[in-house]
Specification:
Structural class: alpha+beta
Number of domains: 2
Order of helices and strands: HEEEEHHHEEEHHEEHEHHHHH
Helix content: 25-40%
Strand content: 15-25%
CATH architecture of the largest domain: Beta Barrel
Number of helices: 12
Shape: globular
Low-confidence stretches: none
InterPro entries: Catalase, Catalase_3, Catalase_AS, Catalase_clade1/3, Catalase_core, Catalase_haem_BS, Catalase_immune_responsive, Catalase_sf
CATH class of the largest domain: Mainly Beta
Bound molecules: protoporphyrin IX containing FE
GO cellular component, one term: cytoplasm
Catalytic activity: 2 H2O2 = O2 + 2 H2O
Mean pLDDT: 96
Keywords: Cytoplasm, Heme, Hydrogen peroxide, Iron, Metal-binding, Oxidoreductase, Peroxidase
Protein name: Catalase
């Protein structure tokens, strides 16, 4: 056995000299037989994987979710059953529109992608710091993101595209008002709330279904930056939010969130005056109050940023028994998009990586092979990768994997004709206006200044269309913007 401290090549062979290439003569050119040099350069060329198409800049941490209220009346989900139960978690925070090297203090929603490593598999809530979103149908998402990213010709950010899109998509009004308000630039990831945003479902042992929204309330309080503070910070420390999280956890100043749910009985969805599956809307707490169910604490930093954060593959389709989806058309699209992105970005067997494999249970299935198969999950190992057990089911061997009908989701009644139903002619304005009306005078002034700082850069026809939308949300809102634009 060689000394463990020897520098070796990938095949484990000790390296005699890692400072000097193999050359033909003292001043001569290099030799192709220098496989050490080739291995080093070739691996270097492959150090990067594609960055996430959205939410590329981010940071992560592990933590603990402690259940303080038993939810077995609503769900069989293991992590929501049994007061005091603790479940390991992983979270990745992010901005949305910037690239991997972009500044943290941008005016942009923040990703709040949380994984619970439950005894019945990994449950991911891949939400944002906002309870709503710009769209109500996932077919619009690529168009929307194109307007948030760089112009394909100039490679510059493009306010014209952004406002042109919003002018044509009034369902964005609520989220645009949040984004442009004082809430639009969180000071860091600790001092902001998180939301599951979508409506999901819970189902219990009796087969009853409830609609649910998840809320994570920061115990650090909410702190936001003004445009001026953010502009300065972006120059001083582009990694301000990441640094804040790393320092806090290193100092054992563990950030915490109080976890709440809003719960709606299944049948209410048919009569509630707000479409509960429309992601541009919130459920007023006066209708469905917050129920406190636990606490999330972040208390451990990853050891290897690339392995654990860059390769983290969070997905709204990571669901566990007791938790299901809802008909929300955005959520439905996301159920496809994430695992597809992971197969492209990380590779077929991304779920075998330590951050992605189940930690509190074992993955047992008949899928085999694929690039990099055989990476054993350090927690429980994984059958994927070709151990000796059958790769088909059912089978008659003693180790045959059993289906568990006790985990069957109750059937969901659906009706209606298959069609492409218009996303227009719905109420796009009431909640945007309600939000505007609760802002104080100073905040209204800052909101209008922020909107106009950007909207003033675009063509007159787009400005005029936006003023119509703001006016429909609230006459005073539209009036102030119209005046500030000099229309
Ligand atoms: C990341 C697609 C809507 C929150 C991503 C990624 C894709 C994607 C492809 C990159 C995944 C990866 O490479 O790991 C979509 C589509 C949407 C949508 C198609 C609409 C249909 C939303 C919404 C939210 C959201 C509504 C929040 C409520 C996030 C977060 C991440 C993310 C937090 C980063 C996850 C991480 O930290 O790894 N999205 N998205 N997305 N998305 Fe979405």
């Amino acid at each position: 056995m060689t000394n463990k401290s020897y520098l070796t090549s990938q095949n484990g062979a000790p390296i005699a000299d890692d400072q000097n290439s193999l050359s033909a003569g003292k001043r001569g050119p290099l030799l192709l037989q220098d496989w050490q040099l080739i291995e080093k350069l070739a691996h270097f060329n492959r150090e990067r994987i594609p960055e996430r198409v959205v939410h590329a800049k981010g940071t992560g941490a592990y933590g603990t979710f402690t259940l303080t209220k038993d939810l077995s009346d609503y769900t069989i989900a293991d992590h929501f059953n049994g007061v005091g139960k603790q479940t390991e978690t992983f979270i990745r925070f992010s901005t949305v529109g910037g690239e991997m090297g972009s500044a943290d203090a941008e005016r942009d929603p923040r990703g709040f992608g949380l994984r619970f490593y439950t005894a019945n598999g990994n449950h991911d809530v891949v939400g944002n710091n906002t309870p709503t979103f710009f769209l109500r149908d996932g077919i619009k998402f690529p168009d929307f993101i194109h307007t948030q990213k760089r112009n394909p010709k100039t490679n510059l950010k493009d306010p014209q595209a952004m406002w042109d899109f919003w002018a044509e998509n009034p369902e964005a009004m609520h989220q645009v008002t949040i984004l442009m308000s004082d809430r639009g630039i969180p000071a860091n990831y600790r001092q902001m709330h998180g939301y599951g945003s979508h409506t999901f479902s819970l189902w219990n042992a009796k087969g009853e279904r409830f609609w649910v929204k998840f809320h994570f309330k920061s115990q650090q309080g909410i702190v936001n930056l003004t445009n001026e503070q953010a502009d300065k910070l972006k120059g001083i420390d582009p990694d301000s939010s990441q640094r804040d999280l790393v320092l806090a956890i290193t100092d054992k100043n563990f950030p915490k969130w109080t976890v709440n749910v809003q719960i709606m009985p299944e049948a209410d969805a048919n009569t509630y005056h707000i479409n509960p599956f429309d992601l541009t809307k919130v459920w007023p707490h006066s209708d469905y109050p917050l129920i406190e169910i636990g606490e999330l604490e972040l208390n451990r930093l990853p050891e290897n940023y690339f392995a654990e954060v860059e390769q983290a593959a969070l997905s709204p389709s990571n669901l566990v028994p007791g938790i299901g989806v809802s008909p929300d058309k955005m959520l439905q699209a996301r159920l496809f998009a994430y695992a597809d992105a992971h197969r492209y970005r990380v590779g077929t067997n991304y779920n075998q990586l330590p951050v992605n494999c189940p930690h509190a249970t074992q993955a047992n299935h008949h899928q085999r092979g694929g690039a990099m198969a055989g990476t054993a999950c350090p927690y429980h190992g994984s059958q994927t990768g070709g151990d000796a057990s059958p790769n088909y089911g059912p089978n008659t061997t003693p180790e045959a994997l059993q289906e568990s009908s006790q985990f069957a989701e109750p059937p969901l009644r659906l009706d209606g004709e298959a069609d492409r139903y218009s996303r227009y002619n719905q109420d796009d304005y009431t909640q945007a206006g309600n939000l505007y009306r609760i802002f104080g005078e100073d905040e209204k002034q800052r909101l209008v200044a922020t909107i106009c700082g950007s909207l003033s850069q675009v063509t007159l026809d787009v400005q005029q269309k936006m003023v119509v939308h703001f006016t429909k949300a609230d006459a005073d809102y539209g009036d102030r913007i119209s005046k500030a634009l000099g229309l």
